[in-house]
Specification:
mainly beta
Length: 129
């Protein structure tokens, strides 16, 4: 019997771009690296140190997402979202992967802007740091 544990309701946009986060945005900001994002949440990597948030913590995150136009152009749209940390995965002794759930969803589905994933990945190569 084969079980399907996939619970995602939309395709995620996979790309690497900085994300800034803090428990309180008036405090010290920490930088992570986005891994993927959907309208309701995101995943990023960060150092396995005191700057890494913990499961259940509420944080504020600031990040940018490429928005593709019909003429193969794109703009970067910036967002700030309050989010709860729903999972922490240890990648190795130096890096952790943090999964977030946004308190307010984004106004669009980042991973569903392009129907052709190969075209989307080609466009992202131009904007990936």
């Amino acid at each position: 019997m084969e079980s399907n544990s996939e619970r995602r309701t939309e395709r995620r946009l996979r790309y690497h771009w900085p994300i800034w986060y803090a428990e309180d945005f008036n405090d010290v900001l920490f930088q992570g690296q986005l891994v993927d994002i959907s309208s309701s949440g995101a995943a990023f990597t960060c150092g396995a140190d005191d700057s890494c948030p913990f499961e259940g913590q509420q944080i504020t995150a600031r990040f940018s997402i490429p928005c593709f136009g019909p003429d193969k152009s794109f703009d970067m749209s910036s967002y700030t979202r309050t989010a709860s940390v729903c999972r922490i995965d240890t990648m190795n002794s130096f890096i952790r992967r943090v999964a977030l759930h946004f308190a307010e969803p984004l106004p669009f589905r980042p991973g569903e802007q392009e129907r052709n994933e190969a075209d989307q990945q080609q466009k992202l190569r131009a904007v990936t740091i």
